Amino acid sequence: MNYSIACPVQFGSGAISQLSNVLGGLGCKHVMFVTDNFVSSQSWYADCKTKLEQANIKVSQYNQCLPDPPDYTIVEIAKQARELMVDGLVAIGGGSVMDAAKGANILINNPGTPADYYFVPPENQKQGFPLVCIPTTAGTGSESTMYSIITDTKNNEKNVLIHPATVAIVDPELTLTAPPSVTANTGMDIFAHSIEAVTAGMRNPYSEALALDSIRRVVKYLPIAVATGSDIEARENLAAASNLAGIAFNSSSTHIGHGIAHVLGVKYHIPHGIGCAMASPETLRWTAEFLPREVKLIGEAMGLTFKGSEDNAEIGKKVADAVLELMAKVGIPPLSKFCKSEEEAVSISGMILADPNVSRCPIPIDLRTIKEIMARIYSAQR
Ligand SMILES: NC(=O)c1ccc[n+]([C@@H]2O[C@H](COP(=O)([O-])OP(=O)(O)OC[C@H]3O[C@@H](n4cnc5c(N)ncnc54)[C@H](O)[C@@H]3O)[C@@H](O)[C@H]2O)c1
Ligand SMILES: [Fe+2]
User: Fold this and answer.
1) How many angstroms separate the CA atoms of 67 and 247, rounded?
2) CATH class of 9-175
3) Centroid of ligand 1 to alpha carbon of 94 (angstroms)
């Protein structure tokens, strides 16, 4: 077992006001903001730049990040940062933005392309710039994980770079503008991180404690934030849940659910959180066959009660049904909206088996089992 925390976190509403202090502490005099078009159009973003400039920290910007960051974006960010001769990076955005910046930071002082660094541990890379990650979605927890999930555009697959942030600033107020669909999708990503952290092959007591707390918060506050985006208590709890789940799966990893979500993402452009949600009920049903204790703990964190006489299949069904209910409540669309038939859904099973997440399952999984899971995902949500 290996417990770890990727970087220190400053958490709380208004925490973004700490950015100039944090950058000062890191010795930065000229940073590049890495973000996307949406975030760079917000008034708080302009205020943030102004405050840094008042503190004598020069700000440059790259605001062309795209969802599911393509590898060429990572190359562009690193090139621009080198040309501008900045001495620090500030990623402000959802998981796509933070992952793009984390990946680019590898290329700052290391030669080659992103593909040269898939799964290369930080100790085998030269260090990049100080990097501050500031999430604007409550979902990925990327600010507190060492992973950067990028799209390999040559092979049309997701792959993994490893580079943590230096400091994370989690300010729940930045998530207030997320519309109901983004709130729901990203919130279900939190849920998926947590259930997979509790059940992955590398599960451990530290991950379990954080992930179960995260599940309690998501189940209570996600429907509230989807219905009333301005509810700051709900946003604060989801931001905390996202960060805790990130810390949890950073040391336990995710598994089959994320393998499925990644393939659904590259194959049908299903947003990451929706793919994660679709995979979660069947991930739990399968896992309950050999980890009933863990799946029961997840059910209890969701507010379910058990008589104690349930067999493993009953535990799996009860918890899977509760997840389907949560998904319906927050408006997660069914797989049939993106993929024409059950046969087609099953046909991507080979790609799922090849996803790196699959090697982190609690027990080895075979192609036949993945096919069964995909068939059930297709019919479960209609
Ligand atoms: N690094 C990790 O550990 C990790 C973990 C899980 C997922 N991921 C990856 O993260 C990516 C998904 O990130 P995401 O779910 O945060 O979505 P995202 O970053 O792709 O953003 C989705 C959309 O929401 C918009 N958005 C962001 N913040 C907003 C706000 N406050 N208000 C309104 N709109 C806002 C963005 O502009 C974008 O259009 C995927 O590529 C996934 O594979 C990484
Ligand atoms: Fe995820």
Assistant:
1) 22
2) alpha beta
3) 4
